[in-house]
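Hey,
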Amino acid sequence: MIEQNLLLILVLLPFVGAVAAATLPVNAHSAAAWLSGLTMAGGLAILAGFYDPVSQGLVIRGTVQWVPAIGLNLSFRLDGFAWLFVTLVLSIGILVVLYARYYLSKTDPVPRFYSFLMAFTGAMLGILLSGNALMLVVFWELTSIFSFLLIGYWHGNPNARDGARTALVITAGGGVCLLAAMLLLGQIVGSYQLDRILNSGEIIRAHPLYLPVMVLFLIGAFTKSAQFPFHFWLPGAMAAPTPVSAFLHSATMVKAGVFLLIRFSPALGGTDTWFYVVTGTGMITLIMGAVIALFRHDLKGLLAYSTISHLGLITALAGIGGSAAILAAIFHIVNHAVFKASLFMAAGIIDHETGTRDMRRLSGLIRVMPITGALAIVAAGAMAGVPLLNGFISKEMFLAEAVGWHNGTWLDNALPWLATVASIFAVAYSARFIGSVFFGPLATDLPKKPHEPPHWMRRPVELLVLICLIVGILPGQTLGAVLNAALASVMGRGTEHYDIALWHGFNEPLMMSLLALAAGGLLYALTGRWVARGPEGPPFFHMIRGQKIYEWLMLRLSWKWPRMIHGFVGTEKLQLQLRIMVLLALAVGFAALWNSGFIGPIAKWNTPNLAFGLMWVVGASCAIAAAWQAKYHRFAALVLLGGAGTITCLTFAWFSAPDLAVTQLLVELVTTVLLLLGLRWLPRRRSEIAADRLLPARIRRIWDLVIASVAGAGLAAMAYAVMTRPLVPNIGDWFLRNAYYEGGGTNTVNVILVDFRAFDTFGEITVLAIVGLTVFALLRRFRPAPESIAAPAQQRGSTPKMLGNYLLIASMIMKYMFPVLIVVAADLFFRGHDLPGGGFSAGVTIATALLLQYLATNVRWIEARITVLPIRWMGFGLLIAGATGIGAWAFGYPFLTAHARYIDLPLIGKTPAATALIFDLGVFSLVVGATVLMLIAIAHQSLRAARMREAEEEAEKKKETA
């Protein structure tokens, strides 16, 4: 139990740190850095406690039930592979936090940066530790969202905005494909638990859906790890601050895809299709990235394409499969993260201290930045695969796999040649990084005078370079145990143990490495000056850019083609849109009934009640009359709609549904008054439109009448068919039987809303909050029509004293109704679990009380006396409802599980109490906030109108005096 709780804390800790960092003042740079660093250090401390069981091959699991009925739980698992990856993420994360403290400017909103960084770290840990395939996809998409925020941190830079958008579209689109793959895997295997999926490789590979699953899965992985043809988003993301590049593009985001490839290789790999697609894509990306990197002039651009190349290397190893290849892939993930993070930080230091990243302007920096230069040279050597550095060993392992026999196909036979070519270019671009920046004459036209950075800004680079050296010299002693534990967790506990050593004798991989070092150095020596004078990209191919193709495609998908389709079938007329929607609904309804038969068995007809029939005649008449009057007499139509709503309310009461009747009455009241307030600001329509008398308009109205009649008759027939069928056992019977014993309430409707179906209600109040904010945002931009600015005709010519007493008696009654309605709302709220009422009804009642105050007085009078702050009401409502659901986890129950019992209260005695009441409080708060927010948005139009009237009067006076 302790291990499970620690595992949950490990996942939640970064998110808590993100929230805490977001609350810090803008200038709290050191506090935000300390908070973030300590948060990650706390995660490392938890990981250290898990090392012994994980190294012995055990898997630590923790589960929080979410929706157990469909297998959707917050399930986490920590094995050797996940332990190594999480350690890598948190360790480099701490160094990035320290580096960012000195890199970011004092004018930057640093707490926001650290908040995004912590949230991204939490999402990344969620991917690494997820034990449920669906939750893995959720965290996967969270990394896309938070990386968008991090890449676009300097949102004033258009390149940062474009790079963030491109990264979001590509990676989030891949996430949708990954979701589809996981859903199919769950159906094939019969479970969404990762353990079950990973152990069902034979079932998956033999299934007819294996190929679609593999394609969808690989699209998700390739987009995240920037594999061809999705690689172009990564260079665009270099507009992000360097700490973001050092973290996201070395150890975290871009490694998520290859992590998934390795994790799922036992389940999806082992087929020729997997080998061709994964290994082939990896090798294409490896060579393409290496070649383009040589021709990039921007430091971070070179590092971006080198990252793409190394990710292709890891992808190719995942496609080759087998224990040795997977071990090499895991080892290179670690090595690449270490030397690439140090190189990104070194590039950031150079940019920070010189003011440029253009290698054509940089040279001779070893003279003025000797320590930084030495560190960067060692890290670049690791990137090139120089012996005695960590990159050399994992690259040797890759070359050994490339030389080895796998299946004898043309791709298998070509692997040694392709790997050697890629290695040559890797050495060449590493040599260019070193030679162009640090050697040659000292640059004199730099924006800043170069010098060494602050000591603590360089410390992370020093530590990473030291790791490159130690691992390169003593690989087995430093990482042998954890790498073998990671391999066993992926391939199975019976996997062979590998000894990782620096020297394996003179063999083919070593010969290939030496050839690459010599040929790569010669290639740079021969082409270095020519490359520096050329365009940013390989000859001819620099004109074919993935980013340009993406932008061309996005322009057509998001603008040109939709506009063309809209021109053919679209319309801006609301009436035509509604007509199309109703016709589509009718078509679907008739299609559903066509095969099943339109006429079912005739049920027994109950003797109609005359009073009920007359009531419905009145309601139908109101509805028809409202439609008839809506165009020219809006007020009359609104009154008639109120009449139809009242009949609906009476119908609920007639059929013994008092809860629905109360809710309908309250909603009808509020919506009618809100619509009435809104009508005040619409343009007047006093004169008849001449075109309405013409034949086309008459035909259109007749056509609309026919459609409305058919749709209404269809709904009536459907309602009649449902209500006259024989009663059969259904879910409603279960709710009636269990409302009291399971939910602690006798009002079944309310128990369903706040207990049995509380998750649905939580989603609905979230939608209500979004609607309230949207209406408020739209009305803030709305300006009254010029003809609506003038005072109402009833108030014109009145003196200020007369206006002060306008509707005096009605105003006094509405004011005195405020405390009464508060008492009514309290009664509805507290009795809602057993009698008609509840949080929604109480919230609408409070909103009505406030609405009456706005009607009784004016905006300035009411807001000078009552401070409502509706957005806070909405926020607290969502927090209370969410916290109630999360609270169930503390007791080991699924999200939003309610508990009911009797409690003893002084002077009252035993009283029923349920945690659903707290959830209902959240519903109440949000309903009040959303309704009052819309009310305030409409009411403030009167202030705008008053200001516009005053401006017009002032202009008239100036005109008269002139």
